[in-house]
Amino acid sequence: MTTITKLTMAPQIPPNYAKLLYQYLINHFFFFISPIFISLSIQSFHPILKLYNSIEFNSLNVISSFFIIITVVAFFILSKPRTVYLVDYALYKPPQSWKLSSKTFVEHAKQVLPTEPVNFLTKILERSGLGEETCFPPAMQLIPPNPNMQSAREEAEVIIFSCMDSLFKKTKLKPKDIDILVINCSVFSPTPSLTAMVINKYRMRSNIKSFNLSGMGCSAGLLSIDLAKDLLKCNPNSNAVVLSTEILSTRNFYKGKERAMLLPNAIFRVGGAAVLLSNLRSDRHRAKYRLVHLIRTHKGSDDKSFNCIQQEQDGEGHLGIRLNKDLMVVAGDALKSNITTLGPLVLPISEKILFVLSLVWRKFLKFDSKPYVPDFATAFEHFCIHAGGRAVIDELQKNLRLTAEHVEASRMTLHRFGNTSSSSIWYELSYIECKGRMKKGDRVWQIGIGSGFKCNSAVWKCNRTVKKPLDGAWVDCIESYPVHIPDVVKI
User: Fold this and answer.
1) Catalytic-residue membership of 406
2) d(CA 307, CA 300)
């Protein structure tokens, strides 16, 4: 029987009215001084008008001037980078038969693992933040689990084809309309590739540009978006599909005793997402979002960062994924490097001034004070933090000083679907849409972190108010969320 202990209630932070007033005045500074500029402009306009009236015009001058203006405008338009639009996306919704409760998971584990690892897995699950609706593929629900190439291929086909079918239905596109295809899956990389599997299934064009990314970890979804973005910059009037998933029916299900390698068994679950990107100007009205920034940070040159997540065999030859105890420290360091680049691009001037003053205060005036953490809530309305686990969300929430509302989508995604690897940020975006919170002009920050060690950020701006979806992964349960997630759920 499942019993619930203490509920976590996020404390409400009272508003800082002085800071709110400061932000308003600084961010609207140019609005307040614009009357002065207008007055000065009017006073200086008379000499210009006098000079204008003194010039004698002829047909050649007029035509030459007009030609120069047209040339400059045309050059500006043609040299401007094409906007990348997110037209729509589709999520994989596993069937009811794939659901695996925590109690059943533990009972299955008892059949294949020694007592000590089972007890450790039980403690992890009780504190993981995962609910009772998460899903495992059929091959991994057998006793004992039967991960093999055939079952992994079958799982990949079910997830990927379901996402593609749903995406084609949503966007009214045909397979031959796709110019670029990018698929990322970290631990399953068959031959022929997953992209070849999709091209064969849908009889796509022979000149399609396809890329299959593997071994890139949970942050690979945004890496794929960045690759597709670069390809769209070079190929006008094109459509790109990015598909992110992780296949669990592989031999990476760990059967040994080492705790650091047992963690992935407890938190990873089935999921997938297919995203349609476009640079067609005709899509600017129907697209949900446009891509504003994509910032990538790679800390692989540091040994501690490189080694914190490793696929390896233990001393007994059991294959698995090792999560090092330094993971949270490494993740925080990678996030810091990433937002150092992102911050100047997105933060309002009021936050930039406070950050510079804090830097001067500490570095030059030698005052012992904590570095100022910018208020990213002034730059974004919505946050999609990779649902890698409760500890990951807690760490990023603390480092960014976000409220419980800001990380609600991440926590609820972890509860309902588990850690779906690189596709988790799309389940979070869908959660926000299903709640009816996505309005025209809203800014979204997606954060992906993963092995390597990598931290990637994507900034999207909402093109139009998004209506609540009538179907999708969240539709049948969205009304029951958000839920209170206990600190511990006894199994």
Assistant:
1) no
2) 9
Give tens-digit pLDDT for 158-175: 999 999 999 999 999 999
Active site residue 119: no
Q: Which of 135, 163, 218, 462 is flagged as catalytic?
A: 218
- Which residues, in sequence order, are CB contacts of 4 under 8 Å at separation 6+? 486, 489, 490
Name residues whose C-beta falls within 8 Å of residue 446's C-beta, 6 or more positions apart in sequence.
222, 384, 425, 428, 429, 457, 458, 459, 460
Distance of CA 484 to the CA centre of its chain: 24
**Average pLDDT of 351-376?**
77
Catalytic residue among 108, 386, 434, 463: 386
Using the predicted structure, report yes or no on whether residue 151 has a pLDDT greater than 80. Answer: yes
Least confident of 32-36, 63-67, 242-246, 460-464: 32-36
pTM of the model: 0.86
pLDDT of 24 reads 56
**Average pLDDT of span 284-311:** 96
Which among 265, 338, 382, 434 is annotated as catalytic?
Answer: 382
All domains in the chain, ordered by first residue? 85-345+373-490 (3.40.47.10)
**Per-position b or e across 267-299, b if 16+ CB within 10 A of its CB:** bbbbbbbbbbbbbbeebeeebbbbbbebbbbbb
Any catalytic annotation for residue 108? no
What residues contact residue 192 under an 8 Å CB cut-off, 6+ apart? 200
Q: Is 419 a catalytic residue?
A: yes
